[in-house]
Amino acid sequence: MKARIVYASMTGNDADMADILEEDLQDLGFDVETSEAEFTDASDYLSSDLCIFITYTYGEGTMTDDIADFYDQLKDLDLSGKYFAVMGSGDKMYADHFCENVFDFEKMFKQVGAKEVTKPVTIENAPNDNDIDAIDNAAKEMADQLNG
Ligand SMILES: Cc1cc2nc3c(=O)[nH]c(=O)nc-3n(C[C@H](O)[C@H](O)[C@H](O)COP(=O)(O)O)c2cc1C
């Protein structure tokens, strides 16, 4: 099974999440490719079974340009028959906007026909031990759904 992880990270927290998930999925037997949103075209998802997006949220949910460009590319795809998962890091100080971009992408993946394999993993700032467990568990759910 092929998994594609695309992530956006300014200060490294979402890049760390991507690293953890990449290692988990490789251990579970996936062939994984990981890249940053600003250097990736969303159409790269078309060659994967499992499409993953991991993102920060800045500016009370307003998308930064690199995420907005990727979002616009995603909007034009047909991902029916594919599976997806989203995750990301934010800060609860932003209350109603906590991890808003993660949920924006969740909606868009559904809109373009992909099937969600696990609930979004949303964490605060850098991943701690509990967050790492949550990512590990999400990876196991992904493997169960795709292999089961
Ligand atoms: C100026 C600024 C605005 C932010 N706005 C939000 C926000 O609207 N919602 C949120 O959940 N987190 C917000 N955050 C927190 C970041 O999303 C959080 O620190 C995240 O871990 C950064 O991820 P990164 O290290 O991958 O860039 C903001 C942080 C900064 C510095």
Automatic annotation (TrEMBL):
This protein's name: Flavodoxin
Domain Flavodoxin-like: 3-143
SUPFAM superfamilies: Flavoproteins
Family: Belongs to the flavodoxin family.
Domain of life of the source: Bacteria
Function per UniProt: Low-potential electron donor to a number of redox enzymes.
Listed NCBIfam families: PRK07308.1
Molecular functions (GO terms): FMN binding; oxidoreductase activity, acting on NAD(P)H
Required co-factors: FMN
Keywords: Electron transport, Flavoprotein, FMN, Transport
Organism (species): Lactobacillus kimbladii
InterPro entries cross-referenced by the UniProt entry: Flavdoxin-like, Flavodoxin, Flavodoxin/NO_synth, Flavoprotein-like_sf
